[in-house]
Amino acid sequence: MILKRSNRYYLILIVLSSFSFIDFFPMAISSQTPSHEKIILRGFDGAPLTLESNAPYSPKKTCGACHDYNLITKGYHFQQGRTDVTGKTVLSDTYDPKYPWNLSAGLFGKHSFVSFDPSHLSRKVNRQFYEMDKSSFFFVQNCGACHPGGGWGEFDRKDNLYYNEETKKFGYEVSGDDPMFDGDYTPFSAGNEQYGAPWDRSGVSEADCLICHLKGYQWKERGAAIRGRFFRYGPTVGAGWAILKLSEDKSKNPVADEIVVDYPKKEVADFENLHLQIVRRPQDENCWSCHALYGERKNGYYWSLQTDIHKAKGMNCVSCHP
């Protein structure tokens, strides 16, 4: 068979596209063999932790020692509308003059009337309590279970840490703002003047690398820690290095009342051999921990070898969602 010149170009294009597809979806030929360097867990002061330590570890000080933590946390999963694609903070009181209740284009700061919890993020600057709905602290506590940390879990709308563990200062002390009517620091939230925003006791919610890169991550236990206002403990709890005393909130969700760090525990992660457990490509189950809830509200999930051809051919969530 003789191909015309134009047809040969199409054939070459198809062949090249096939190789590109293999490069883009390497799941079937790639290996999950651990290749991570030895990991030294560090506390919020940067000092190495030991098996006998009782302080939570800091993902920023631990993983950030080698990886560009600031660059990684510019991603949408961490910011959800707080910043634009360049990392510039765009969440603001004047973001949308036509619809002033929208403070950003993302999930954080965007009001949705059809949401199961149509909460409104309070503006940064307010004059009276009646102008305010939910504070940033409220959102971290109640939405942080499905948020990997970083972004609005760490920084206020002026790019200051809500609370700096090293300087022992709140962000409003750095900027000189009055916390009472400040949407990031006000003790008023959800109509409750005594709701509080004790960032110094809760700590900030750092980006938790293991929530995606550790098989068997305990995201439900981490959620209980976040709801219990133990933000800084979230990553340690998720890795299984803690003993929790639990109760329930009004919605029957587990809430941590007390947390005791226990690094010798190995049911999930091994303190001394964590580098051997890191997976480069997040497991589907790690994605479902947060995303399955929203999928079930739509059409449900049928992601199995028997019901989905993509799964059967070796693809997973990050094959299409890198």
Strand segment count: 4
Radius of gyration: 22 Å
Spatial strand arrangement across the major sheet: 1-2
Structural class: mainly alpha
What does the largest sheet look like? Answer: 2 strands, antiparallel
- What is the arithmetic mean of pLDDT? 85
Ranges where pLDDT stays below 50 over 5 or more residues in a row are 1-31
User: What is the beta-strand fraction?
Assistant: 5-15%
N→C terminal distance: 41 Å
Shape: globular
In N-to-C order, the SSE pattern is HHHHHEEHHHHHEEHHH
Describe the structure.
There is one protein chain. This protein has 322 residues and is mainly alpha-helical. Among the domains are: 68-208, no CATH class; 281-322, no CATH class. It contains 13 helices and 4 strands. It has helices at residues 5-24, 59-62, 69-72, 76-79, 136-143, 171-175, 199-202, 210-213, 219-227, 234-238, 284-296, 309-312, 317-320, and strands at 163-164, 169-170, 242-248, 254-261. The strands form 2 sheets. The protein has a two-stranded antiparallel ribbon. The protein has a two-stranded antiparallel sheet with strand order 3-4. Strand 1 and strand 2 (169-170) form a beta hairpin. The chain is globular, with a radius of gyration of 22 Å.
